[in-house]
Amino acid sequence: SGVSTAVKHLSPETRVVGVQATGAETVHESLDKGIPVVLDEVDTIADGIATGGISETTLDIIEANVDEVVTVSDTDIAQAILLLMERAKQVVEGAGAASVAAVLSDSLDVSGETVMPLLCGGNLDMTQMREVLIHALTERQQLLQLRVRIDDQPGVMEEISGVIARQGANIHDVRHERSVENLEIGEAYLVFNVETSGAEHAQTIITAIRDAGYPVDNVARKAQNGAL
């Protein structure tokens, strides 16, 4: 409210864009109905904007000073947090990174404009930071969880580990899974957690495992997409 009021007072032609997390979105409906809308529950990593509703005063200020409101997903926000750490060397909380998430997303066209996203807050504890980074790195496919179906024989783990190693990837850990419904007697899954340099490298690893004769799925990516 303060920023939009100041900006519109000093530079009325400047476009002001508000950003909400998809899991706590209330402004669009509030603007449509002309009254504040309150959610029964919210679900977002951006704690600072997970209010579940706005006041009448805030709605009046948005109507007067904000030109557009866009929403961003938690995945967008996580990617923005990671990017800010890598490029700007800034640790920004989810609510603060939402502005950058909007700029990076397809929901906002800023071509030909000078953009100033506000990085307002660094309240990101270590546990939440770890969760956000794992989510963002998984989305980038820099972290893979590969499930490989095998005949459970001595030497198979070593063989597949060698295939992964020859692609220049680091295996973080691996485990056997034998008690799974769709497995035949004598079969097992090997689940590898692998670090890569990105999506292209990840696909190279998956292709190499398949070329070696083993069915393989990136189960972390599937689970993440399913959750979204």
The helix/strand series, from N terminus to C terminus, equals HEHHEHHHEHEEHEH
The main β sheet shows up as: 4 strands, antiparallel
Chain-averaged pLDDT: 92
**How far do the termini sit from each other?**
31 Å
* Number of domain units: 2
**Molecular shape:** elongated
CATH class of the largest domain: Alpha Beta
CATH architecture label of the largest domain: 3-Layer(aba) Sandwich
How many strands?
A: 6
Protein name: Pyridoxal-phosphate dependent enzyme
Keywords: Lyase, Pyridoxal phosphate
Domain ACT: 145-224
Cofactor: pyridoxal 5'-phosphate
What does this structure look like?
Keywords: Lyase, Pyridoxal phosphate. The structure is a single chain. The longest helix has 15 residues. The mean pLDDT is 92. The chain has 2 domains: 136 residues, 3-Layer(aba) Sandwich (Rossmann fold); 88 residues, ACT domain (Alpha-Beta Plaits). Helix 4 crosses helix 5 and helix 4 packs across helix 6. With 228 residues, it is of the alpha+beta class. The radius of gyration is 23 Å and the shape is elongated. It is built from 9 helices and 6 strands. The strands form 2 sheets. It has a 4-stranded antiparallel sheet.
